[in-house]
């Protein structure tokens, strides 16, 4: 598990061959192999960012996180 700053996380945006990671409540998840996150985008949400608020507003909610690989934590 790696510690990511918000600046470092931006590099994992799912574009130009980079993996796609999102942070939710301080945990960083790998969404690279999730078809809905193809190209680092999912319903207007972008990989490489903290998407804690967006997931709370999504229809699937936090339960979907159980299926995602954890790769680290978001630090200040």
From TrEMBL:
Residues 4-75 form the Cytochrome b5 heme-binding domain. InterPro entries: Cyt_B5-like_heme/steroid-bd, Cyt_B5-like_heme/steroid_sf. It comes from Pediococcus stilesii. SUPFAM superfamilies: Cytochrome b5-like heme/steroid binding domain. This is Cytochrome b5 heme-binding domain-containing protein.
